[in-house]
Design a protein that fits this description.
By secondary structure, this protein is an alpha/beta fold. The protein is built from twelve helices and five strands.
């Protein structure tokens, strides 16, 4: 057997296999890049809608204007995330501020990632809440509405707390929002967070009229310290409201007989220490 020929054949086969592997690796890389590119689409804004179940309801128009200017200057760094809502339409999962900024700019399309079909509606809700909580963009009453909606769908407080990464006692505070009168809900922006709001509602249950009067005078976001001061003001009556001290001597009216008046006057003096008339 010609060992030299065998060695050459073996070397050639090995070279061919390595070359094949190199080509396969490049093909895999290209396929991966193609797959990644295929997950991001340019979708017309007219086919994209705000998610009706989005926990966040309020958007700062000035911030959106600033964002649109930043996008105009630097472009869209992060695509929005959408989910199917019919054959051609989509609901926004994440990135509604970016979507609104694109609307201000008059852009026809926006880069978007289409969410996995296996995502459940509950999962999407928690994703939306989580995104806003990380940026501290979610108002306390928006999170309260979300938690209440999950309770109404049969979820347990402990499950909701675990998914949101908060304590169960904190979810209880948010549930207070469910029975809040409209006249207080209309002034919700006067509270900086759920804790002062929860403290205020405890006072409101015992002093509704005073609480509403207090709230009507507020011009800033209330803190827990502000609520505690208000509570103390209810517990400590104002000096102007304190009853005047009763006099030591009471004189009878002039229409009574002189004898009765003198008798009453003498009896009172007898029972009073340090009478002003004791030297006479």
């Amino acid at each position: 057997m010609d060992l030299s020929k065998f060695g050459k054949d073996f070397a050639n086969k090995k070279s061919m296999n390595l070359t094949g592997l190199a080509i396969t690796s490049e093909q895999l890389k290209a396929k991966k890049e193609q797959k990644e590119a295929s997950t991001i689409f340019d979708i017309e804004l007219t086919h994209i809608k705000a998610d009706p179940n989005q926990p966040r309801k309020d958007f700062d128009e000035e911030q959106i204007l600033e964002l649109s200017q930043d996008i105009e200057l630097h472009g869209l760094i992060q695509p929005i995330v959408v989910r199917k809502a019919g054959d051609e339409d989509y609901f926004i999962v994440a990135g509604e501020r970016r979507f609104r900024a694109y609307q201000l700019l008059g852009k026809p399309t926006i880069r978007a990632i289409i969410a996995d079909k296996n995502w459940q509606e509950n999962d999407i809700g928690y994703i939306q809440v989580s995104e806003n909580l990380k940026r501290a963009d979610l108002k306390f009453y928006e999170l309260a509405d979300f938690i209440i909606s999950r309770i109404e769908k049969g979820e347990k407080q402990s499950e909701i707390a675990d998914k949101l990464g908060i304590q169960r006692s904190e979810t209880t505070r948010y549930l207070v929002w469910q029975d809040v009168p409209e006249e207080i809900k209309n002034q919700k922006e006067k509270f900086g967070s759920i804790r002062p709001f929860s403290d205020f509602m405890k006072i409101y249950k015992e002093h509704p009229q005073e609480s509403l009067e207090f709230l009507s005078t507020v011009e800033k976001a209330l803190s827990r310290t502000d609520i505690e001061r208000f509570k103390k003001s209810l517990e400590e009556p104002a000096q102007d409201d304190e009853p005047l001290p009763s006099p030591e001597n009471e004189f009878t009216s002039f229409d009574e007989s002189n004898s009765a008046s003198e008798q009453s006057f003498t009896q009172d003096d007898a029972n009073t220490e340090d009478s002003p008339f004791e030297d006479y």
